[in-house]
Amino acid sequence: xxxxxxxxxxxxxxxxxxxxxxxxxxxxxxxxxxxxxxxxxxxxxxxxxxxxxxxxxxxxxxxxxxxxxxxxxxxxxxxxxxxxxxxxxxxxxxxxxxxxxxxxxxxxxxxxxxxxxxxxxxxxxxxxxxxxxxxxxxxxxxxxxxxxxxxxxxxxxxxxxxxxxxxxxxxxxxxxxxxxxxxxxxxx
Length: 188
Hints:
Low-confidence stretches: none
InterPro entries: HNH78-like, HNH_nuc
Number of helices: 6
Protein name: TIGR02646 family protein
Organism: Fusobacterium ulcerans
């Protein structure tokens, strides 16, 4: 998981909101969702899912409400509450669904790298800090997004094994931005 620096709400979205009567999510057609996803991927996320850090594209992604729209209807139309996430049914936003707690690490507000580190033997994401509140937040976020899904752990473990042998190549690899930084800081 990595920090997202949200940009100002794009003009095309402001225009859309003034033209449409925004009463529910169904007024968002394919075109506006595609524009939103593309904008966030290009200008904020570098084409990564901010939760699992896998590369994604506009076609295989979704507009993710950080705080679920069913529990926070007042944020349904707030650009600051959006990310572009992967569509994996076993992880990330699809898995999170409508779950929410203040323990969730919002990557637009907090820097997830302050909360997480990696077990290089298993590929698991684990809490970085020993401070109780930070551990609780890290554990909750890992659980609610299922970031230690077997498939994700295997992908990270393979990435770690391949790159510990060849650290100088890390700068040229376009995967797992926060894991890459962790390896550079701890094993270079």
